[in-house]
Write a structure and sequence with these properties.
With about 500 residues, the protein is an alpha/beta fold. Helices cover about 40% and strands about 15% of the residues. It has four domains: about 55-125, no CATH class; about 170-275, no CATH class; about 295-355, Dimethylsulfoxide Reductase, domain 2; about 370-490, no CATH class. It has helices at about 5-30, 50-55, 115-120, 120-125, 140-145, 155-160, 175-190, 195-205, 210, 230-235, 240-255, 270-275, 280-285, 295, 310, 320-325, 340, 355-370, 375-380, 395-400, 415, 420-430, 450-455, 480-490, and strands spanning about 60-65, 75-80, 85-90, 135, 170, 225, 265, 300-305, 330-335, 345-350, 385-390, 430-435, 440-445, 465-470, 475-480. The chain binds iron/sulfur cluster.
């Protein structure tokens, strides 16, 4: 038979139709439900599959803990445990129960308080990179086994002190780890004890003052930093205990009694790594003077500078959302377009290291245009305190008032709250302001702030220069710090 195109299409069409009919019948058979259900929203015969989802959240017990990596937030969180495995970690929503030493309670507004790191903390605990046993660097162990030979450039290479990151880490038992650590401590502390030790340190380039401060104790080459706030209480103040206990090693090394043996050196967060410290006393006169983050919620204008709540203070970031909800404005001053900057009403991009210049410029505008609250400045800042122009030091009351006796403030805030001691008070002395009412100098104490200053009937001036006579009979010029700032800010 001759197959024409027409014949082919006719045959193919008939075959296709037959196949389609058969296929549809098969499909309908497959589509027929295994179970007849009238209204699946009303009732369904088999709902066991739902338990797969429900069981995800089943737990046997829970416990709370303080999440405390090195980020200072110390969120109190709750872990949910199943089969003795922490399945998840959640916010505990109980910050309203916190109180400080004076009984002040936090508010519910602190909730929620956590971050994505905290949520996944348990995954790291069970993760493949969790450290489960001590590790000793291979080169260091060899150095110890060889009797701690001098670290000449050749030996530094031999024991990989110059390529530690590339060295192998060997699994060790705890006994071995402690033994090697003790051997290392004894080697170092003996090596740098006494005159020989001091000589070595000088040769290595340490300043003489530092070496003198060791007083011959090699244990003082150890410098320990405790850690921040609550984190330290939990885990890292152990470093201070360790340092103190090194005096036992000094006693062992140098044969000294408890009255002479010296431990390691405790270097606080402030003096050593400078976390917060320099800026705080400069600005507030106190270390660790901080704001109550809760205030952000009630602010109409929040300016973040040197701060990035979204990325670096994650549990506080919800305050920003709440400011937005209440119609407040957010300002972010950062060189980079940070996640906080993206959410701000105003982003002020500045060059790195110029934020202080920006603030001094702002201060100049505030002062030039008298936009400040003079009453507040007088009562709550150190701007009215007189400074000597001959020494650029604060004028002390004893400088100009003969036989000046420090006022008794032992029951005031300085002693009762800030923990001021008599010896510190002696050094600080009392300050002097120029009183507009008497047109003369008046002494004030550290406690004469706010209403206390007003109660003394003193109205300190902010502007001008004045002449006073010291107890030695020398006439000197003095001016309030405010006046000095006017000179300083001319550059801005
Ligand atoms: S912010 Fe995150 S990592 Fe830091 S303490 Fe809170 S939950 Fe833990």
């Amino acid at each position: 038979m001759k197959l024409t195109r027409r014949t082919f299409l006719q045959v193919a069409g008939a075959a296709g139709a037959t196949f389609t009919v058969a296929n549809k019948a098969m499909a309908f058979r497959l589509l027929k439900p295994a179970v007849e259900v009238g209204n699946p929203l009303d009732a369904y015969p088999d709902r066991t599959w739902e338990s797969v989802y429900r069981d995800q959240y089943r737990y046997d017990r829970t416990f709370t803990f303080t999440c405390s990596p090195n980020d200072t937030h110390a969120c109190r969180v709750r872990a949910f445990v199943r089969n003795e495995v922490v399945m998840r970690v959640e916010q505990n929503y109980d910050h309203q129960n916190y109180s400080d030493l004076y009984g002040n309670k936090a508010t519910r507004n602190w909730n929620p308080r956590m971050c994505l790191k905290g949520y996944t903390f348990h995954r790291r605990v069970y993760g493949p990179y969790r450290l489960r046993y001590p590790l000793i660097r291979k080169g260091w162990k060899q150095w110890a086994d060889d009797g701690f030979p001098e670290l000449t450039p050749e030996n530094k290479s031999k024991y990989m002190f110059d390529a530690r990151g590339q060295d192998e880490l060997l699994k060790a038992s705890w006994d071995d780890a402690w033994t090697y650590a003790a051997k290392g401590i004894i080697h170092i502390t003996k090596k740098y004890s006494g005159e020989e030790g001091a000589k070595k340190l000088i040769e290595q380039g340490y300043p003489k003052e530092m070496v003198d401060a060791m007083k011959g104790a090699g244990t003082r080459t150890f410098k320990g930093r405790g850690g921040m706030g609550l984190l330290g209480v939990i885990g890292k103040y152990g470093m201070y205990r360790f340092n103190n206990m090194l005096s036992l090693v000094d006693s062992h090394n140098r044969g000294l009694g408890p009255d002479k043996a010296l431990g390691g050196r405790n270097w606080s967060n402030y003096t050593w790594h400078g976390d917060q410290a320099p800026g705080h006393p400069f600005s507030h006169g106190l270390q660790t003077s901080d704001v109550d983050m809760n205030d952000i919620r009630f602010s109409k204008l929040v300016i973040q500078t040197g701060k990035n709540l979204i990325e670096n203070k994650m549990p506080e970031a919800h305050w920003l959302t709440q400011v937005m909800e209440r119609g407040g404005k957010l300002v972010v001053i950062t060189p980079e377009y940070s996640p906080s900057a993206q959410k701000a009403d105003y982003w002020i991009p500045i060059k790195c290291n110029t934020d202080t210049a920006l603030f001094l410029g702002l201060t100049k505008i505030l002062m030039d245009e008298k936009l400040y609250d003079a009453d507040y400045v007088k009562r709550f800042t150190d701007f009215p305190l007189l400074v000597r122009t001959d020494t650029l030091k604060r004028l002390q009351a004893k400088d100009i008032f003969p036989d000046y006796k420090l006022e008794d403030i032992s029951h005031g805030a300085s002693y009762k709250i800030h923990g001021l001691h008599d010896d510190q008070r002696e050094i600080l002395g009392d300050f002097v302001v120029w009183d507009a009412k008497t047109n003369g100098p008046q002494p004030i104490t550290r406690d004469d702030v706010g209403d206390k200053l007003a109660a003394k009937g003193i109205d300190p001036v902010l502007d001008g220069t004045f002449k006073v006579k010291t107890v030695n009979g020398k006439e000197i010029e003095v001016m309030p710090l405010f006046e000095m700032y006017k000179i300083h800010l001319k550059d801005y």
